[in-house]
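Subgroup meeting minutes
Present: P.N., E.W., G.H.
Scribe: E.W.

1. P.N. recapped why we're keeping a running log of single-chain structure predictions: easier to compare across weeks, and new members can see raw inputs and outputs side by side.
2. G.H. added today's entry (352 aa).
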Amino acid sequence: MGAATGQISADSIATGGARPWPIARWLLIVAAMVVLIVAVGGITRLTESGLSITQWQPVTGTLPPLTEAQWEAEYAEYRATPEYRLEAGPAGMTLSDFKFIFFWEWFHRLLGRLIGIAFAVPLAVFWVRGMIPRGYKPRLLALLALGGLQGTFGWLMVRSGLSGEMTDVSHFWLSIHLLTALFTLAGLVWTALDLRALARDGASRPARLTGFAAIVGLVLFVQLLLGAWVAGLNAGLASDTWPLMQGRLVPEVDWSRGAWRAFTHDPFWLHFLHRWWAWAAVAALVVLARKARPADRRASVAVHAAFGTQILLGIFTVTSGVALWLAASHQVVGALLVAATAWAAHAIGRRA
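Output recorded in log:
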């Protein structure tokens, strides 16, 4: 008992009287909430719900319409959008249909608000009580800023689909919105792991990002970017066969408008790149997992499990014609793969 008390006192002195364990647990809870909002965001995209709310009302938008008059007012605003005029309206959308898509966008925004509160309020409490270890305040503030930026990016994404003749949001803004969320997720996991290590050993230093882990992160970033563009352009529907696309290994691509246009807008070419760049990502992740294994076997297993599941879900999503539950699961496991990659990279960084 005395030895344990002495160890706690020593760690407390080494960490400046801070208490890393509660903060680490809190960050992991917020990380789980980020995975959840990524899942709901995927469903929102797949159900074409993202443009159902045409205004950004951070406070008053918390409550959904509660009366028929309020529902009619929201529906009237949606009927003025290009998506309704050119697609949903001609397809025969009813008020009941609108309420369905409105729910997913409202729920997505509500989760964003809840994540903001779940991060900001405990952060303020930990700060006032002096529980945050030395050197971690700037990092936590940066994560808070990323959360706020994410909300701004989300609105800019929605606004991109409300003007002109756009019937969908910009796939560029969609990728910025998604990748910012995944970068924030990685930051939450990494910081939580640093704090867990600090809780075990008061003299522990934060893990560093090794050069190899940065390269793996870049390879994975390209794959995630391609995935976001595929989602934004509905390019998953370009082929429902695997490994061939419409009987060909390399699909027909319209190069007449230049390579840049093909690499950023052609659904067939982006679908092709996404499905085959995945193997470059797998190769990089296999090596990352092997390097992480001596330091943390669980991180290595998590990476293998995540990318294996992700590959299968990707294939099944394509062959199912982009079934809702498969496509949403593909996006969720993508988020879990990011978390697992951050875990393995952290293990390598601590070992180094």
